[in-house]
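REQUEST ID: PR-0412
SUBMITTED BY: lab tech R.K.
PRIORITY: routine
TASK: structure prediction, single protein chain
INPUT:
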Amino acid sequence: MKSVWFFDDVNLFKVLCPHKFKDFKADHDFDAYKKKDYIYFEEDSANKVYLIEKGKVKIGYYGEDGVEVVKAILTRGELFGETAILGDTKREEFAQSIDNTTSICPIGVNTMHNLMRDNQTFSFKVYKFIGFKFKKLERRLQLLLFKDTKTRLVEFLEELCHDYGYDCEKTGDKVIHHPYTQKDIASLIGTSRPTLNILMNELKDENIIEFNRKEIRIYKNIL
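STATUS: complete
OUTPUT:
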């Protein structure tokens, strides 16, 4: 099964971005963001959805104690702000660029509704994508609430393997080329970077994984 962020082997950006559609191309621009720039805040009006042309975007919210909770870190080709399509009028989360060269394709809700109304297959794909994304976020929040940190890491590695992994033919290991920094991973599993380093090295010492900055190797039949 392919990653939920792609369907039918097609990058979402290539399918949804209005500059691909003749009727919308002339009036469409991209928005550029630097690291730490916000695309929107909690309580902002929800009148657009967004596709990432390049860069990375963090989606999260602040709890009652002021602690930041990271729901997702999204990369090229991924969609966010999609609850506006379903009728939400205010944001319940923030979206922040965490890359210095982030480029976003904004799509007005009315434009999206027009595209969906004119193409049933397109509409089905959008709703299917939203459903998959909600399930994935719900699972991640359940992990944060009910699992210990090492279990959260192991299950996150399983998710990475599903989304970015491939089989190494020579050894049968799973090799994961992923877009996340250690800080990103720590945020996504609700821990600190030092704790993540300790746990990753524990898994390495247990001969479960090998890793460097951009690649994680999961040894055969371990996860």
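NOTES: The chain has two domains: 9-146, 149-218.
REVIEWED BY: pending
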